[in-house]
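Dear Dr. H.,

I hope your travels went smoothly. While you were away I took the liberty of generating a structure for the chain from your last submission, since the lab meeting agenda had it listed for discussion. I wanted you to have the full record in hand beforehand rather than looking at slides cold. The sequence, exactly as received, is reproduced here:
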Amino acid sequence: MKLRFHTLMVLLLGWTLHLGAADAKTEFKDLNGQIQRPLATAGHKATVLIFVWQTCPVANAYAPEIERIYQDYKNRGVAMYLVQVDPDLDLESARKHATDYGFTLPVITDPKNVLAKYTSATMTPESVVLLEDGRRVYNGRIDNRQAALGKRRPKATVHDLRDTLDAILAGKDVKPRTTEVIGCYIPEE
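The corresponding predicted structure, in token form, is as follows:
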């Protein structure tokens, strides 16, 4: 009994420390040198983090849709960030990738994967949605266009990220949920 209690306490302590690794004050510089606080969710109806790896073909194929989502929601109270997870990505390469793929949303590099660990993101392109109070309500795919590795539908039939954002903006009670992401693994340190 004591062993189980101590094991439980160690697990809880580890979970608490993990959550404390990042908070609303955690800062990142975007590709323009501006300070961004992607976990400072207050004042936004929703905050979206989309994790990408610049060499992941699945993530790169989603670039036009990521940009469309940003354009459709940026003036509706939704903050959105593209999070580059490659630990070896230099600033010049990150800028080139953003330019090549037409990203205008804030792009931040997170070589230590602080945000991925905090939000439990494990794949690219994975989207995470946080509410104004910081609660995570969605981890998962952008839509269902990627049916399997190497297999894409011509058109998405389920728009998970957009549906989540639309529900939040409509004032609906959004329950936390997760969907499977097909893409590339986020590297572990």
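Two observations you may find useful: The chain has six helices and twelve strands. The chain has one domain: 24-185.

With kind regards,
E. W.
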